[in-house]
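Following the same procedure, the fold was encoded as tokens, giving this record:
***
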Amino acid sequence: MGKVFFLTMVTLVSVEKASLNIVLEEIKNVLKPFGLFFMGVYGGGDSEGIWQDDKYTPHRFFSFYTDETIQKVVSNYFQVINFERIETGEKYHFQSIIMRKK
């Protein structure tokens, strides 16, 4: 049975860029027709890799996207209903995306 709503909150920022399409396809597969998907990630730059300035040990892996790029990537699988950029006062801002399964 499919889901009507799917939520990811800052988890997909740890997915390698080469694998994000696979993850989005799987999320699309578990959603019912016209199901909603909320994705919240940090972004604003275009980078991928171990974050050398991380305060945690071992350092964490992050994939960051510009606002334009993340919207383009997700729109291959979903209709973007709302995109909101939320400033954090830090280097990266929060990208809030509400989507619907096509």
Notes: The chain is about 20% helix and 45% strand. The chain has a mean pLDDT of 93.
